[in-house]
Write a structure and sequence with these properties.
The complex is a heterodimer. Chain A is built from twelve helices and eight strands. By secondary structure, chain A is α/β, with parallel strands linked by helices. Chain A has one domain: P-loop containing nucleotide triphosphate hydrolases (Rossmann fold). The chains are: A alpha/beta, B alpha+beta. The structure holds adenosine-5'-diphosphate and magnesium ion.
Amino acid sequence: MEGKVIVVTSGKGGVGKTTATASIGAALALEGKRVAIVDMDIGLRNLDVVMGLENRIVFNIVDVVLGKCKISQAAIRDRRIENLFLIPASQSDNKDVLSPAGVERVANDLRKEFDYVIMDSPAGIERGFQNAIVGANEAIVICTPDVSSVRDADRVIGILYSRSLTPKLVVNRIEPSRVERGEMLSYEDVLEVLSIELLGLVPMDEHVLISSNTGTPLVLQNDSKAGHAFRRIARRLNGEADLPIEIPSHRSSMWKKISKTFGFK
Amino acid sequence: MFNALFKRFTSQKPSKNTAKKRLQFSLIYDKLEVNDTTLTDLQNDIVAVISKYFEIDKDALELKVKRDDDVSALVFNTPILQVKRKRAS
Ligand SMILES: Nc1ncnc2c1ncn2[C@@H]1O[C@H](COP(=O)(O)OP(=O)(O)O)[C@@H](O)[C@H]1O
Ligand SMILES: [Mg+2]
C-alpha cells in the first residue's frame, strides 16, 4: 500500500511549520509508522537543526530531484526514534532549482517507501511553496491566534482548495491565560473565521525553544504540553480521527471542572 | 474570573473582539479584490448589454467595487442619454 504525502504550510513565517513537521513526523514514527520528513525550504534549511541531525547531512532533496543520488542516500536515519528519516533541504541552491514535475515524481517515489512523508513548506505562496504542495495528498495549515497569521492561513487554504486539497487546521502558540483575558483570539474565533476542520490545538510552551536549542525531539519530552499536543495530532492523523482535541488551559483540570459546574466561562 | 469582573467595571472591550472583526472584514475584502483586467472586461460586457436598450455616455460611466463596514457592493453608474427604440424583429 502506498503512503501519504502531507504538506505542512501556513503562508506566514515563524508560526511553527518546522516545529510541527518535526514533531508530527517523530510522533507518527513513535506510533510505529515509517516516516520521512522532508525540508522543502530550499536555501533556508532548518529542519535538520531542529531535529539535531545537521552533522550527518551528505545529500539533500535537490540532489534527489536532480537525480544525483538515490532517496536512500539522502534520507538520514534518526538514531533516537526508529523508522524516522530526514531528507534535508540544500542550503546553497536557489529555490528555482526544482521543477514542480520533478518534485511530484520524487513525492510519488517516496510514497512507495514510507507510510508518511511530511513536507515542511517555506513561508510565502511563491515557487517554493508551490513545489512543497505539488506532490501532496493531504495538507495541514498552521496558524497562530493573531490577525496576520489567520489572514495568511485563509489565503493559503484558498490556494490548497484550488488544488483539490482539503486542509486541516492546527492552531499553535495558544496562551490560555491571554485567551481568557480576551487579549488573544480563541481557537473558536479562529475556526469561525477560517471554517475548516480542526486537527489540533498547541499551547505556547517553553520546551519548544529548549528542544530546538538542543536538537532533541519535542515529543520525547514527557512534560512538554506542546509535545503532548503534537502526539495527539499524530494519532488523529493516523486513523484515530475520533480522539478528542484537548483545549489548552492554564488551570488544573480540577479548576476547569469546578468552573464548568458553576457555569463560569 | 476576577479579571473578567474587573474588565466589566472598567468597561474595556477585549482587544480580541476588535481582532476578530478586523479579520472577518479583511477576509471578505481580500476576496473581493478584483484585478484591473477583470474589471475592464466586466465593464465592456455590461456596456454591451446596456447599449442594446439605452444610449449611454460611455465616458461618464464608472464601475467599482465599494466596500463598507458591513456590506460590499459592485457599483455601476451611468448617465442615460436616450432610450433606444425597440426594433421590430
Ligand atoms: N508552541 C510553541 N511554543 C513556543 N514556541 C514555539 C511554539 N511553536 C513554535 N515556536 C517557536 O517559534 C519560532 C518559529 O517556529 P518555526 O517552527 O521555525 O516556524 P516556521 O517554520 O513556520 O517559520 C521558533 O523559535 C520556535 O521555537
Ligand atoms: Mg520553517
